[in-house]
Request: fold
Amino acid sequence: MKRKITILIAGIFCFLSTMQSQTLLAKWTFPTGAATDSLADGGIPVNLNKAIHTEGGTSAIDFSKNGLTTKAAQASNWDNGALTKCWVVELNTTGYETLELSSKQQSGGNNPGPGDYRVQYRIASASMWTDAPNTTLVTANNWTSAVLDSVLLPEACKNQPSLFLRWVMTTNNNSNGGTVAASGINKIDDIYITGKLISTAVNEQGERVAFSISPNPSDGPVRIISPELISKVEFINYSGSVILSMEKVNSYKLFVESSLVKKGVYFIRLTTHSGKKGINQLIVL
Reply:
């Protein structure tokens, strides 16, 4: 009996640890050098159509230049751009908290770009830009000077349908100590934003079962497939309330019309006939 209890406790802690680990929400690593590298090349489905861009009047972005490992995003025309010219990304963080940001920047060697940057965030398109703590950057002609490594973003960034981040130049000084010229170059690479799933409704004990939901996000019917016979499926909101429940399913596959619930993010809790439970997240558009 003692051994069984130990195994059960270990399983519970393993599950909670998994639920609390960082999930990749979006990344831009510019793997191919093509214009399509503007789009996120990894992350949760709702963010895969998000594109990096610049604001303030820089040149068009060139994705064909060498980055740290593959390619990078490069722009020039940073002159006279203090507090206006910047790199910008947008992403959806709905359902996630404890957001962390990583990125790398490089200034041109013969054509030194801005020497000073800072990351700011904005919630939705109409709000003000706000400094993110611990994100002051000083660039150089390398990929090691201007690096953010899993920097914690402010609490305000969590659980947002539209979060903007920008790397804005804060002075007109270039990385060699002079003034930024129109020919000055800056590159950005390896942007990663991660977060922890908000787990209000999901901290449960017992054996787990993995199951799939597709499509996800969805604005219509979704298909739920389980390797074990399904007994019950529940839609749970982030306050932990069950807002839709389907019992006595008795099938390995279930089609559910997502229009039965309001737009938003939900936990889908599945229970099998053997008593196992699984939880996945569904975004309803």
User: Anything to note?
Assistant: The chain has two domains: 22-197, 199-284. The mean pLDDT is 89. Residues 199-284 form a domain with the Immunoglobulin-like fold (CATH 2.60.40.1930).
